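Translate sequence into structure tokens.
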Amino acid sequence: MKIAFRFLGIFALILVAVAGGFVLKGGRGLRQPREVALRPLTVVTDSAALVRGEHLARVIMKCVDCHGSDFGGMDPMADAGPLGIVRGPNLTAGEGGVIARYDDAALARAIRHGVKFDGTPILIMPAGAYLTASDPDVAAVVAYLRSLPRVDRVIPQSNITALGRFLYGVGQFPIVEADLVDHSVEPLPPMVAAPTIEYGKYLADIGGCTGCHGPGLSGGKIPGTPPDWKPATNISPEGLKGWTEADFVRALKEGVRPNGTPIDTLMPWRVTRRMDSTEMRAVWLFVQSMPPKAYGGR
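Result follows.
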């Protein structure tokens, strides 16, 4: 019996040592700079660029969801319970703001690649959605962010617990988008705002539609979200069977289905209702161009 307990004790120590190793590995991974080259960016600050940048940041790319309606940061932005708390930083030039640490190229890299000015990763930054955003659109967002009024708000650092670092270390806590994107992908050329499938796909990508509903739009569990988050619905032609364009527009504007039932507020219809008619039609045309898929196939 004593020998059995001795072996159990040794086994427990081994498990603790292995777990501790993955905690350390996860912690190092969250602090380790990523080698992502800076890309030159020409930023124009005229009124048209600022209007476009505001529309992109608030309505299309939905930066306000993580950084607050005044871009002064959110504490917490996401609470993963025992895994930690992720906070959205203050993007203004006020006290506690971080934007002064970035030149234009570094800010564009943060948006597209999910790394900070020093190369360390940004947590829960949807860089995969913004990776192909065109230079003029990213430049417009940069110009708009630099034009924001000062907000004096100090946001504490995000905190990932030992359990969160362990799960990240073993590859089961995908909170670093910089680990998941292909950094060699080039931005798309400037897009023409028109009711086309091509423009609709562009908006669906940088707007997060394909991030939540999947590349095939068939829905299911959203990767990296807390366990209690509701899955995304199927918005491929299979899931929207019987819907008209008017139904789709109403869903984006009012957050209701054709039968009048409400759409969960995880779907950001309070923001998408500010899309213009060209954008809504383009996204509808893109959605309808996709192959029908059964629910959950992403």
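Note: The CA atoms of residues 244 and 258 lie 9 Å apart.
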